[in-house]
Amino acid sequence: MPSDRRKRKLSAILSADVKGYSRLMGEDEIATVDTLKEYRKVLATHISQYNGRVVDSPGDNLLAQFSSVVDAVECAVTIQGDISARNTAFSENRKMEFRIGINLGDVIEDGDRIYGDGINIAARIEGIADGGGICISGTAYDQVKNKLNLVFAFLGEQPVKNISDPVRVYRFCPGSETSGESPGQKRKQLGPWHKAILCGVSFLVITGAAWVMLTFFLHPVPEDVASVEKMLFPLPDKPSIAVLPFVNMSRDQEQEYFADGISETIISALSHIPQMFVIARNSTFTYKGKPVKVQQVSEELGVQYVLEGSVQRSGDQIRVTAQLIDATTGHHLWAERYDRELKDIFALQDEITLKILTALQVKLTEGEQARLWGTTDNLEAWGNLIRGSTLFEQFTRQSNARAQQFFERAAKLDPNWDIAWTMLAWTHWAEASLGWSESPAESIKQAIDIATKAAGINNTLPEVHSLWSNIYLAQGEYDKAIGAGQKAIALGPNNALCHILLSHTMTCAGRFDEAIELAEKAMRLSPYSSAWYLMMIDDAYRMAGRYEEALAIGKQHLDRCLNGECEPFTAHMGLAATYVGLGRMEAARRHVSELLKIMPDLSVGQARKIILFKDPAHVEHSLDVLRQAGLPE
């Protein structure tokens, strides 16, 4: 062998640098240097623990060499966990995040120094990683995929500067595990960070710090965000979402249909939720198999949110992961993992789909009350409930009758589903309260019977008590109505529906200031609430004499009705009364004219039947206002 032949060695190379280092230095050089020194010691300690050595650490960069890829990857995970936990002590703009890249390649050793393309590739891969994230090359992935209880998402073949061939790159997915072991299987040996987390998690949960740490580490904020200015389509005025095809991470390609099925079912189910704008399947599936970023999807489809996920099978176990990302900020809003036995694959698909749908509704539309809608394992029942709710909220005789049919189907498909019975009872209440029933007394009796059945299934359901509140209101029992409404809020303090319904009760009871406070809180709890919420707060403002605020809300209500969310007769009636209060009689009469086009037989006498004010003076005042606006006797 020639005496001058260089010593070569196959090594795992870990390259790390600080995300946004220049910004940190520009804001506070001394603090940044002090933190960097502390964190370098952290990295060096963990690298030594995992049998590696620090080769170089210029500026904010660090280069380490390992003889084992498994050691290098486990070390990276431990480092990110430790740094993330330490970052909780800093304000958001002072957190110091590291990006880590790992490659297995041939290097030249010259004393303590190493050289070669293996190092360059690690450094380039590091640049692809997010702050707090880890990316590894294909050569490294091939060594760890069956040895570590970790999951990596394939980012495709990436061009690397000064390297002729593209490099396969995989991104570590925190909180998941690889297909090399069955989902749920744990490694016997835990690294230092895992032990620390297990020992400290109870305390962190109690103090609230766990959420900060997990959110920051498990869902690092990417540097690139979607630009609203670059979007090919304007953002809709309600939550907009694209559901990307779920990635099949199983070796068994026959599982591809299961991954596609979950994506398609979620898209189909979301399309029934009127508060959301959902991109169709034929558009999102054009990204199937392509290494795209959520920011690109957002800009090309004109959506704010992107849902992505993966499916992984090992033996008779299957794992589905999903995460919701706000592409305009880069923030991960929600992520979850579902481990199940693979028995009835279609029932399993429905179960996981329902859990994901509920989580999306909680995050983007109905808030916490959506959790109640997800307490069925029957996806068809859920679909009937959503369709019925959309119709019910239109507040017309015809839509109420159709909603009643959907709720009956939902209750039949899942007889133990309390919310399905509750919503069915609501339709009978509406018949009686809004003059749509030939026998109001019989409709109220049916509402009471069904509400009793719902309460028998679950008497802690907030919506059941809101229903009783409105039944009492229809019967003129105002104190009981208020008591039941207050109990509903006690059971569901973050339930927007219960707040808006009690607001209506308070308006009818003449307690207008309390009604306004409840309505405003409901709107805060559910920013994308149904159009009829506006009707309730409009009434409260107007009866409190706050006509300008009532006018603004009334116009919003009418606009949403004219856009198809509801029938506009209540909006026209409210605006007519508000314009009378403002002394703008011509405008009031225009709205009564529009009202009579929708309901030609409407009269002051009929209006009296549906006005529920406790104080007779308030009833007569409301009727007199309608007379002034031109409603016939």
Automatic annotation (TrEMBL):
Residues 12-126 form the Guanylate cyclase domain. It holds the Pfam family TPR_2. Keywords: Membrane, Repeat, TPR repeat, Transmembrane, Transmembrane helix. SMART domains: TPR. It comes from the Bacteria. InterPro entries: A/G_cyclase, Adenylyl/Guanylyl_Cyclase_3/4, Nucleotide_cyclase, TPR-like_helical_dom_sf, TPR_2, TPR_rpt. The keyword Kinase does not apply. PROSITE patterns: GUANYLATE_CYCLASE_2, TPR. TPR repeats lie at residues 462-495, 496-529. GO terms for biological process: cAMP biosynthetic process; intracellular signal transduction. This is Guanylyl cyclase. It comes from Desulfosarcina alkanivorans.
